[in-house]
Design goal:
Helix Hairpins, HSP40/DNAj peptide-binding domain, 3 domains, about 30% helix, four-stranded mixed beta sheet, 11 strands, alpha+beta, three-stranded mixed beta sheet
Protein backbone atom coordinates (compact mmCIF):
# COMPACT_ATOMS: atom_id res chain seq x y z
CA UNK A 1 0.00 0.00 0.00
CA UNK A 2 1.31 3.46 -0.89
CA UNK A 3 2.38 5.60 2.07
CA UNK A 4 0.25 8.69 1.55
CA UNK A 5 1.98 10.63 4.32
CA UNK A 6 5.34 9.96 2.69
CA UNK A 7 3.99 11.13 -0.69
CA UNK A 8 3.07 14.49 0.87
CA UNK A 9 6.24 14.58 2.99
CA UNK A 10 4.40 14.89 6.32
CA UNK A 11 4.28 12.91 9.55
CA UNK A 12 1.37 10.58 10.24
CA UNK A 13 0.44 12.85 13.17
CA UNK A 14 0.27 15.97 10.95
CA UNK A 15 -2.83 18.11 11.39
CA UNK A 16 -5.05 19.33 8.55
CA UNK A 17 -3.20 22.66 8.20
CA UNK A 18 0.17 20.92 7.85
CA UNK A 19 -1.26 18.56 5.25
CA UNK A 20 -2.76 21.46 3.31
CA UNK A 21 0.51 23.44 3.36
CA UNK A 22 2.49 20.42 2.16
CA UNK A 23 -0.01 19.81 -0.63
CA UNK A 24 0.04 23.43 -1.82
CA UNK A 25 3.84 23.47 -1.88
CA UNK A 26 4.02 20.27 -3.92
CA UNK A 27 1.16 21.31 -6.21
CA UNK A 28 3.00 24.52 -7.15
CA UNK A 29 6.26 22.61 -7.65
CA UNK A 30 4.79 19.79 -9.76
CA UNK A 31 1.90 21.46 -11.62
CA UNK A 32 2.06 20.50 -15.35
CA UNK A 33 1.84 24.17 -16.37
CA UNK A 34 5.02 24.90 -14.42
CA UNK A 35 6.90 21.60 -14.63
CA UNK A 36 6.80 19.80 -18.01
CA UNK A 37 8.80 16.79 -16.75
CA UNK A 38 6.68 13.62 -17.32
CA UNK A 39 7.91 12.24 -13.99
CA UNK A 40 6.65 15.38 -12.27
CA UNK A 41 3.22 14.91 -13.89
CA UNK A 42 2.96 11.39 -12.51
CA UNK A 43 4.09 12.60 -9.10
CA UNK A 44 1.51 15.40 -9.34
CA UNK A 45 -1.25 12.79 -9.75
CA UNK A 46 0.04 10.87 -6.72
CA UNK A 47 0.11 14.04 -4.63
CA UNK A 48 -3.47 14.89 -5.60
CA UNK A 49 -4.67 11.38 -4.78
CA UNK A 50 -2.86 11.42 -1.44
CA UNK A 51 -4.32 14.81 -0.53
CA UNK A 52 -7.83 13.77 -1.55
CA UNK A 53 -7.67 10.94 1.00
CA UNK A 54 -5.83 12.68 3.84
CA UNK A 55 -7.87 15.90 3.61
CA UNK A 56 -11.09 13.95 4.15
CA UNK A 57 -11.42 12.97 7.85
CA UNK A 58 -13.44 9.81 7.10
CA UNK A 59 -11.14 8.56 4.35
CA UNK A 60 -8.08 9.40 6.42
CA UNK A 61 -9.44 7.40 9.36
CA UNK A 62 -10.08 4.42 7.07
CA UNK A 63 -6.58 4.67 5.63
CA UNK A 64 -5.00 4.96 9.10
CA UNK A 65 -6.93 1.87 10.19
CA UNK A 66 -5.51 -0.08 7.28
CA UNK A 67 -2.00 1.14 8.16
CA UNK A 68 -2.46 -0.11 11.73
CA UNK A 69 -3.36 -3.51 10.27
CA UNK A 70 0.04 -3.52 8.62
CA UNK A 71 -1.17 -2.36 5.23
CA UNK A 72 -1.82 -5.97 4.17
CA UNK A 73 -4.32 -5.94 1.32
CA UNK A 74 -3.43 -9.19 -0.37
CA UNK A 75 -1.60 -7.38 -3.17
CA UNK A 76 -4.54 -5.17 -3.99
CA UNK A 77 -3.90 -1.50 -4.74
CA UNK A 78 -5.28 1.21 -2.47
CA UNK A 79 -7.11 3.57 -4.82
CA UNK A 80 -7.21 6.96 -3.14
CA UNK A 81 -9.52 8.49 -5.70
CA UNK A 82 -12.28 5.96 -5.18
CA UNK A 83 -13.60 4.45 -2.00
CA UNK A 84 -10.54 3.96 0.18
CA UNK A 85 -10.76 1.31 2.92
CA UNK A 86 -14.10 -0.07 1.82
CA UNK A 87 -13.05 -0.52 -1.79
CA UNK A 88 -10.09 -2.64 -0.70
CA UNK A 89 -12.53 -5.24 0.59
CA UNK A 90 -14.57 -4.90 -2.60
CA UNK A 91 -11.43 -5.71 -4.60
CA UNK A 92 -10.62 -8.67 -2.32
CA UNK A 93 -14.08 -10.26 -2.14
CA UNK A 94 -16.14 -8.71 -4.94
CA UNK A 95 -15.32 -11.40 -7.51
CA UNK A 96 -16.42 -14.05 -4.99
CA UNK A 97 -19.90 -12.53 -4.78
CA UNK A 98 -19.30 -11.31 -1.24
CA UNK A 99 -19.59 -7.56 -0.60
CA UNK A 100 -18.98 -6.65 3.06
CA UNK A 101 -20.05 -3.03 2.46
CA UNK A 102 -23.27 -3.36 0.51
CA UNK A 103 -24.47 0.05 1.71
CA UNK A 104 -21.82 1.77 -0.41
CA UNK A 105 -21.98 0.73 -4.09
CA UNK A 106 -18.74 0.38 -6.05
CA UNK A 107 -18.27 3.13 -8.63
CA UNK A 108 -15.71 4.45 -11.05
CA UNK A 109 -12.90 6.65 -9.69
CA UNK A 110 -13.18 10.41 -9.46
CA UNK A 111 -11.75 12.72 -12.11
CA UNK A 112 -9.58 15.46 -10.57
CA UNK A 113 -9.25 18.72 -12.52
CA UNK A 114 -6.84 21.50 -11.55
CA UNK A 115 -8.23 25.00 -12.24
CA UNK A 116 -6.08 28.14 -11.95
CA UNK A 117 -7.78 31.48 -11.34
CA UNK A 118 -6.58 35.00 -10.54
CA UNK A 119 -6.99 36.71 -7.18
CA UNK A 120 -9.52 39.05 -8.80
CA UNK A 121 -11.53 36.01 -9.96
CA UNK A 122 -11.43 34.66 -6.40
CA UNK A 123 -12.74 38.01 -5.13
CA UNK A 124 -15.60 38.38 -7.59
CA UNK A 125 -16.45 34.74 -8.27
CA UNK A 126 -16.59 33.37 -11.79
CA UNK A 127 -18.24 30.91 -14.14
CA UNK A 128 -15.80 28.79 -16.16
CA UNK A 129 -16.54 26.35 -18.97
CA UNK A 130 -14.13 23.42 -18.93
CA UNK A 131 -13.78 20.73 -21.57
CA UNK A 132 -13.49 17.13 -20.46
CA UNK A 133 -12.97 13.82 -22.20
CA UNK A 134 -13.34 10.29 -20.84
CA UNK A 135 -11.23 7.24 -21.64
CA UNK A 136 -13.28 6.69 -24.80
CA UNK A 137 -12.30 10.21 -25.95
CA UNK A 138 -15.92 11.34 -25.69
CA UNK A 139 -15.84 15.13 -25.25
CA UNK A 140 -18.01 16.85 -22.69
CA UNK A 141 -18.32 20.30 -21.23
CA UNK A 142 -19.31 21.47 -17.76
CA UNK A 143 -19.83 24.89 -16.26
CA UNK A 144 -17.98 25.45 -12.99
CA UNK A 145 -19.46 28.04 -10.65
CA UNK A 146 -16.70 29.58 -8.53
CA UNK A 147 -18.19 31.43 -5.53
CA UNK A 148 -16.92 34.88 -4.46
CA UNK A 149 -14.27 34.66 -1.74
CA UNK A 150 -13.10 31.17 -2.73
CA UNK A 151 -9.76 30.18 -1.17
CA UNK A 152 -6.75 28.44 -2.66
CA UNK A 153 -7.13 24.66 -2.46
CA UNK A 154 -10.94 24.72 -2.37
CA UNK A 155 -12.48 21.55 -3.84
CA UNK A 156 -15.75 21.70 -5.78
CA UNK A 157 -17.40 18.32 -6.39
CA UNK A 158 -19.84 17.49 -9.22
CA UNK A 159 -21.44 14.12 -8.55
CA UNK A 160 -21.62 11.70 -11.47
CA UNK A 161 -19.32 13.66 -13.78
CA UNK A 162 -16.16 11.63 -13.18
CA UNK A 163 -14.53 8.67 -14.90
CA UNK A 164 -16.59 6.04 -16.76
CA UNK A 165 -13.77 3.62 -17.52
CA UNK A 166 -15.94 0.69 -16.41
CA UNK A 167 -19.32 1.15 -18.13
CA UNK A 168 -21.05 -1.39 -15.89
CA UNK A 169 -20.34 0.75 -12.80
CA UNK A 170 -21.74 4.15 -11.77
CA UNK A 171 -19.55 7.09 -12.80
CA UNK A 172 -17.23 8.74 -10.32
CA UNK A 173 -17.37 12.41 -9.40
CA UNK A 174 -15.64 15.37 -10.98
CA UNK A 175 -13.49 17.13 -8.36
CA UNK A 176 -12.37 20.67 -9.24
CA UNK A 177 -9.37 21.88 -7.21
CA UNK A 178 -9.05 25.68 -7.23
CA UNK A 179 -5.57 27.21 -7.35
CA UNK A 180 -5.43 31.00 -6.79
CA UNK A 181 -2.41 32.42 -8.58
CA UNK A 182 0.01 34.74 -6.72
CA UNK A 183 -0.64 38.45 -7.27
CA UNK A 184 1.87 41.19 -8.06
CA UNK A 185 0.33 43.70 -5.61
CA UNK A 186 -1.63 41.89 -2.91
CA UNK A 187 -0.77 38.95 -0.69
CA UNK A 188 -3.74 37.13 0.78
CA UNK A 189 -4.04 35.86 4.33
CA UNK A 190 -7.49 34.42 4.86
CA UNK A 191 -10.03 37.17 4.12
CA UNK A 192 -7.39 39.92 4.48
CA UNK A 193 -5.07 41.44 1.89
CA UNK A 194 -1.59 42.85 2.48
CA UNK A 195 0.10 45.41 0.25
CA UNK A 196 3.52 47.05 0.39
CA UNK A 197 3.72 50.73 -0.57
CA UNK A 198 7.00 52.58 -1.05
CA UNK A 199 7.04 56.08 0.43
CA UNK A 200 9.84 58.69 -0.02
CA UNK A 201 11.60 59.71 3.19
CA UNK A 202 10.29 63.27 3.16
CA UNK A 203 6.66 62.11 2.86
CA UNK A 204 7.19 59.70 5.76
CA UNK A 205 8.46 62.66 7.82
CA UNK A 206 5.77 65.24 7.02
CA UNK A 207 2.87 62.88 6.34
CA UNK A 208 0.86 62.37 3.18
CA UNK A 209 -2.31 60.88 1.67
CA UNK A 210 -1.83 57.65 -0.25
CA UNK A 211 -4.23 57.00 -3.13
CA UNK A 212 -4.52 53.25 -3.63
CA UNK A 213 -6.43 51.01 -6.01
CA UNK A 214 -8.41 48.28 -4.24
CA UNK A 215 -9.15 44.76 -5.47
CA UNK A 216 -12.72 45.71 -6.41
CA UNK A 217 -11.31 48.29 -8.86
CA UNK A 218 -12.13 51.30 -6.69
CA UNK A 219 -9.91 53.93 -5.14
CA UNK A 220 -9.27 54.63 -1.48
CA UNK A 221 -7.35 57.43 0.26
CA UNK A 222 -5.19 56.31 3.17
CA UNK A 223 -3.72 58.87 5.55
CA UNK A 224 -0.01 58.47 6.20
CA UNK A 225 0.78 60.00 9.63
CA UNK A 226 3.76 62.26 10.19
CA UNK A 227 6.99 60.58 11.29
CA UNK A 228 5.94 57.21 9.88
CA UNK A 229 8.76 54.70 10.26
CA UNK A 230 9.66 51.79 8.03
CA UNK A 231 7.17 48.88 8.23
CA UNK A 232 4.38 51.05 9.62
CA UNK A 233 1.11 49.16 9.01
CA UNK A 234 -2.06 51.05 8.06
CA UNK A 235 -5.39 49.23 8.29
CA UNK A 236 -8.18 49.92 5.79
CA UNK A 237 -11.37 48.18 6.92
CA UNK A 238 -13.67 46.30 4.54
CA UNK A 239 -11.27 46.56 1.59
CA UNK A 240 -10.02 42.97 1.60
CA UNK A 241 -11.49 39.78 0.12
CA UNK A 242 -15.13 38.84 0.12
CA UNK A 243 -16.02 36.19 2.69
CA UNK A 244 -17.99 33.21 1.41
CA UNK A 245 -21.64 33.17 2.49
CA UNK A 246 -21.16 36.52 4.21
CA UNK A 247 -21.91 40.12 3.27
CA UNK A 248 -18.80 41.45 5.03
CA UNK A 249 -15.26 41.68 3.68
CA UNK A 250 -11.81 41.32 5.11
CA UNK A 251 -9.45 44.25 5.62
CA UNK A 252 -6.56 45.70 3.62
CA UNK A 253 -3.26 46.14 5.47
CA UNK A 254 -0.84 48.63 3.93
CA UNK A 255 2.81 48.06 4.84
CA UNK A 256 4.87 51.23 4.49
CA UNK A 257 8.39 50.92 3.11
CA UNK A 258 10.33 54.15 3.62
CA UNK A 259 12.69 54.75 0.70
CA UNK A 260 15.88 56.75 1.21
CA UNK A 261 16.89 59.14 -1.61
CA UNK A 262 19.72 58.07 -3.90
CA UNK A 263 21.31 61.50 -3.63
CA UNK A 264 20.65 65.03 -2.32
CA UNK A 265 20.95 68.36 -4.07
CA UNK A 266 22.96 71.22 -2.62
CA UNK A 267 19.73 73.02 -1.72
CA UNK A 268 18.40 69.97 0.10
CA UNK A 269 21.68 69.59 1.98
CA UNK A 270 21.48 73.25 3.03
CA UNK A 271 17.94 72.82 4.33
CA UNK A 272 18.87 69.65 6.21
CA UNK A 273 21.88 71.35 7.77
CA UNK A 274 19.69 74.24 8.92
CA UNK A 275 17.13 71.79 10.24
CA UNK A 276 19.76 69.95 12.24
CA UNK A 277 20.57 73.20 14.07
CA UNK A 278 17.02 73.60 15.33
CA UNK A 279 16.44 72.85 19.03
Amino acid sequence: MADLYKILGVDAQADSDQIKKAYRRLARELHPDLNPDPAAQERFKQVNQAYETLSDPQRRAEYDQMQQMGGRTGGFRFNQSSGGFQDIFEQMFGNMGFHPFQQRPVRNPDNVYQLNITLEDAFRGKQVQINLGDQNQTPSQIQVNIPPGVEDGTRIRYAGNGNRVQPNLPPGDLVIIIHVEPHAIWQRQGPHLHQEVQVPLWKALVGDTLNLTTIDGGQVNVKLPQLSVNQTVLKVTQKGMKIRNNVTRGDLYVHVKVVMPDQLTEEQLTHLAAWSQLP
